[in-house]
Amino acid sequence: MWDGGSEAAPAGPPPLPPAPAPAPAATRARSWAPAGGSAPEIIGHLQENYYNLCVEKSQKINYFILHKLQEVDKEIEKGLEGLTLNIAGNSCLMPVERVTGEDFWILSRILKKNLYINGLDVRYNLISDVGAYYAARLLQKQHKLIYLNLMFNDIGPEGGELIAKALHKNTTLKYLRMTGNKIENKGGMFFAAMLQINSSLEKLDLGDCDLEESTVHLGHMLKENHCLVELHMCKHNIKNCGIKQLCDALYLNGSLRYLDVSCNKITRDGMVYLADVLKTNTTLEVLDLSFNRIENAGAKYLSETLASHNRSLKALSVVSNNIEGEGLVALSQSMKINPTLSNVYIWGNKFDEATCVAYSELMQMGRLKPDNTDVEAFVVDGHVYLAEVSNGLKKHYYWRPTYGAACRHSANAGFTLVPVGGHL
Fold first, then answer.
1. Which phi and psi (to 5°) does residue 376 adopt?
2. Which of helix, strand or coil describes residue 385?
3. How many other CB atoms are there within 10 angstroms of residue 105's CB atom?
4. CA–CA separation, 215 and 217 (whole Å)
5. Is the pLDDT of residue 39 over 70?
6. I want to staple 273 with a disulfide (CB 3.0 to 4.6 A). Which of 52, 247, 262, 313 is the partner?
7. What is the rounded CA–CA span in Å between residue 368 and residue 387?
8. Higher-confidence residue: 396 or 317?
């Protein structure tokens, strides 16, 4: 089954299941009507196109998609452009029918020539490699799309390859999120190769993709690519030799502003390389080292560089790094000297009283703003303690709050400090 009109399909697309026989109209209506209610009136252009195409292709209508298209149709009627179609499958506020690869095939058909939508969020669905094939086709055909969120969609190495190759010639996409899709090393290598060619992508998230020690290939990419602004490499099993390869690349890279190497196996020895590159690198602004093991020695290496050389880094997270009072106090002292470093996150380490006093003083003197750290001070029986506050570089990385702002600046400071495109 191919959607390209007279154009020949490329070899080897992931197969769609055989089309079912057309269902009676009454059955089709029940398949997309909300539980306990009647089907909504089809009033908008996107809704109408989606409904008609499902009927034409004998594809079951996904009510959740229909509802989301209705919301966008209302925005289009107001004359708005640059819209994001949000069909995230983890909504807690309404019944969700997860988007499958077959659903995405229909969706890609109606979005292919749409001039109003430039963002598509289908996180936490089931599009798999079938949907990845049509996502790749969409990237080749839709020249308005700047934001695509595919996180946790059961996309494997083959789907990752398709998407990466589609970006060889794409010149519009600025932000791609592949988080949680197990593309493995095979898929990761295609992304590394793509980034040596692509000249438009600014933000790429390959976190939690079952990549192992990807730094050799991504390091080569950073030496060649001068457009990428933000790179997430959490859970890549990066060790000290891997961080050295990244640091070697950062000596030659003049564009990367946000580096996320959280949840890896970096120790204090890796901080020697990182502290050294920070002496000369003037572009890196946000560094996420959370959930590694840099300990006191690693914290002191960083502190010395931040105090004596670096004046570009704005935010540093060393959450849960087995750092004790000596290393944490050293970081606090560097803040008194370094006027640029504004955000520091330290929760999950080993606080002693000296640590509590040092950070309390930073906050009292106004050097460390309450929204720019994940601790706050309190006093009991004349002793200062630190409590956790729900602030960070990316608190809403895997989830969104059910109510309230999804992108609260203090909880997602990394995205605020390094904005990319129109969508974060």
1. -140, 150
2. strand
3. 22
4. 6
5. no
6. 247
7. 15
8. 317
CB 96 within 8 Å of CB 128: no
Measure the CA dihedral 305/309/313/316, to 10°: 20
Return the structure tokens found at 382.
């004349």
Task: For residue 312, name the pLDDT band (cuts at 50, 70, 90).
Answer: very high
Q: What are phi and psi of 238, to 5 degrees?
A: -75, 130
Phi-psi region of 36 (alpha: psi -120 to 50; beta: other; left: phi over 0): left
CA angle 133-137-142, nearest 5°?
A: 145
Residues 113-142 pLDDT 10s? 888 999 999 999 999 999 999 999 999 988
Question: Measuring CA to CA, how many Å separate 8 from each of 2, 18, 37?
Answer: 9, 20, 42
Q: How would you write 165-219 as a 3-class SS string?
A: HHCCCCCCCCEEECCCCCCHHHHHHHHHHHHCCCCCCCEEECCCCCCCCCHHHHH
- The side-by-side arrangement of strands in the sheet containing 343-345 is 83-86, 117-121, 147-149, 175-177, 203-205, 230-232, 258-260, 286-288, 315-317, 343-345
Q: Quick one: which H or E segment has residue 329?
A: helix 325-337
Sign of CA dihedral 311, 351, 413, 389: negative
Q: How many CA atoms lie within 13 A of 225 on its CB side?
A: 28
pLDDT interval class at 252 (50, 70, 90): very high
Tokens of 97: 């029918």
> What does the pLDDT average to over 68-96?
89
Distance, CA of 250 to CA of 243 (rounded, Å): 10
Q: Any idea which residue has 């370094």 for tokens? A: 338
pLDDT digits (tens, 9 = 90+) for 257-300: 999 999 999 999 999 999 999 999 999 999 999 999 999 999 99
Distance CA 138, CA 185 (A): 24
Distance between CA 334 and CA 351 in Å, rounded? 18
Mean pLDDT of the chain, nearest integer:
88
Distance of CA 327 to the CA centre of its chain: 30
pTM for the structure as a whole: 0.88
Query: What pLDDT score was predicted for residue 408?
Result: 73
Query: What is the per-residue pLDDT for 407?
Result: 65
pLDDT of 25 > 70? The answer is no
Which of 81, 80, 134 is closest to 107 using CA atoms? 134
Do β-strands 315-317 and 343-345 pair in parallel, antiparallel, or remain unpaired? parallel
